[in-house]
Each structure stands twice: as C-alpha cells, then as structure tokens.
Design goal:
- With 110 residues, this protein is an alpha+beta fold.
- 48% of the residues lie in helices and 27% in strands.
- The protein has a three-stranded antiparallel β-sheet with strand order 1-2-5. Strands 3-4 form a two-stranded antiparallel ribbon.
- α2 packs across α3.
- The chain is extended and about 60 Å long.
Length: 110
C-alpha cells in the first residue's frame, strides 16, 4: 500500500505546470495574436498586478484568482515545544506576506 501511495506522490510531482511561453502559445493560437505580443501582455499584466498589490493590497484576475497581502505579527523570542522537544526560537519582526486564492468560479469548475 505504501509503494502505491509513493507512486501517486511521484506522479503528482512529475506533473509540470505550464511555462510562460506555453501560456503565450496557447493564448496566441486561441486569440489570433503573435506570440511576442502575448508575451508583452503577460509581462504588463505581471507589472500591473505587482503595482496594484503593493499599493492597495489586493489584485483580482477575474474568473481565476485573487492576490492579497496579509500582515504577519512579530513573534517574541522564547521556547516552543516542537515534536515533543523544547526548542529556542528567535524573535521575528512583523512582515507582509502575499497570498493567492482561487476565485469561487474556478473552485466550482474543478
């Protein structure tokens, strides 16, 4: 049973996500634009998304995903119990983390 589970895990890791040029090819063939034009559009979309997340803390690609920022509070130095052992942990400053969420339409379609 364990070997079967490991095979499934390896198969999941082997599944590659689409590269930027793969996405550009797919969009170019679907819409009828040149691949170079689509690459520029993707670069611009990334730039606009980055700028928007930095300024307002939220960016949505309709029908696909929403990117949000979240404030993580600072942590104090001390000891924590991890896996049954006491471990000394360092203090960490507060920081902003970026999170991505699939929109409901995408969740429902899968």
């Amino acid at each position: 049973a364990m070997k079967a589970a490991m095979k499934v895990m390896k198969a999941m890791k082997a599944a590659k996500s689409m590269s930027k040029s793969g996405i550009a090819d797919a969009i170019a063939s679907e819409v009828g634009l040149k691949k170079g034009e689509v690459m520029k559009i993707l670069d611009t979309l990334a730039a606009v998304g980055t700028k928007e997340v930095k300024s307002s803390g939220k960016f949505t690609l309709p029908g696909l995903m929403m990117i949000k920022t979240r404030q993580k509070p600072a942590t104090k130095a001390g000891t924590k119990v991890m896996f049954g052992k006491e471990v000394k942990v360092k203090a960490k400053p507060a920081k902003t983390v970026v999170k991505a969420f699939a929109v409901a339409a995408l969740k429902n379609s899968i």
